């Protein structure tokens, strides 16, 4: 069964520093996609980055990069040069190809950026 | 291009009532999914519609139902509301969930439902 684990309920980072948010997943489907979303206090889920299970290179989107270690079933999000606006909940999520659009989310990590 | 819109944004109901939430996907998107978010259970998948057909359903009681119209707009209905149904209900749309890159879901702002 699909499962997403985020072991860091809360994290603090100094402004302008880099931070890594951990995510491990479990699936038996060889074809899947991994996502990271950001949810500010307003509630809206904002898509950050996507990594496909067959992608050879780690995904990057601006200040966001995904450290994908397939054998370890790990998909950590790295945020470089943290900004105050990065303070939010961050969710790791997975979708198996056979599950159409059913996305399973992890419990989330609350990130606080300190000035 | 306009994003996913959800109406209403806030709703207060009493136990036993029913409620209908609406979601308009991004133009051209054909798949619409619904999620319930609560502090205790986190984000849970409710169901997914594609071309007016429900293709996936989460582990929720039959009081939760949905439908999709020919223009891809979707509604979800909760009958006989319970206190535990208080949550943020999020709708997401994607272009083609079977696409090669798995197609990303884009979320609306959500509807906050409070059941008294």
What does this structure look like?
The complex is a heterodimer of chains A (115) and B (116). Chain A is mainly beta and 115 residues long. Helices cover 0% and strands 52% of the residues of chain A. Chain A has no helices and 12 strands. In chain A, strands 2, 5, 6, 10, 11 and 12 form a 6-stranded mixed β-sheet that branches. In chain A, strands 3-9-8-7 form a 4-stranded antiparallel β-sheet, with no helix packed on it. The termini of chain A are far apart. The mean pLDDT of chain A is 93. Chain B is an all-beta fold. In chain B, 0% of the residues lie in helices and 52% in strands. Chain B has strands spanning 5-7, 10-13, 19-24, 31-38, 42-50, 53-57, 64-68, 74-78, 87-94, 106-107, 111-115. In chain B, strands 2, 4, 5, 6, 9, 10 and 11 form a 7-stranded mixed β-sheet that branches. In chain B, strands 1-3-8-7 form a 4-stranded antiparallel β-sheet, with no helix packed on it. In chain B, a hairpin with a 5-residue loop joins β7 and β8 (74-78). Chain B is globular and about 35 Å long. The N and C termini of chain B lie far apart (37 Å). The model of chain B has no long low-confidence stretch (mean pLDDT 92). Chain A binds chain B through residues 32-33, 35, 37, 42-47, 50, 52, 91, 95, 97, 99-108, and chain B through 31, 33, 35, 42-43, 45, 48, 50, 55-56, 58, 88, 90, 92, 94, 97-98, 101-110, 112.
Features:
heterodimer; A: mainly beta; 0% helix; B: 116 residues; mainly beta; globular
State the helical fraction of chain A: under 10%
Structural class of chain A: mainly beta
Low-confidence sequence ranges of chain B = none
- Please give the count of helices of chain B: 0
- Apparent shape of chain B: globular
Q: What is the helical fraction of chain B, as a range of percent?
A: under 10%
**Main sheet overview of chain B:** 7 strands, mixed
How many distinct beta strands of chain A?
Answer: 12
Quaternary assembly: heterodimer
- Our Rg estimate of chain B from Cα atoms comes to 14 Å
Number of helices of chain A: 0
- Structural class by sheet pairing and helices of chain B: mainly beta
- C-alpha Rg of chain A, in Å? 14 Å
The largest contact between protein chains, plus residue counts on each side, is: A-B, 25 and 28 residues
**Mean of residue pLDDT of chain B?**
92
In what range is the share of β-strand residues of chain B?
over 45%
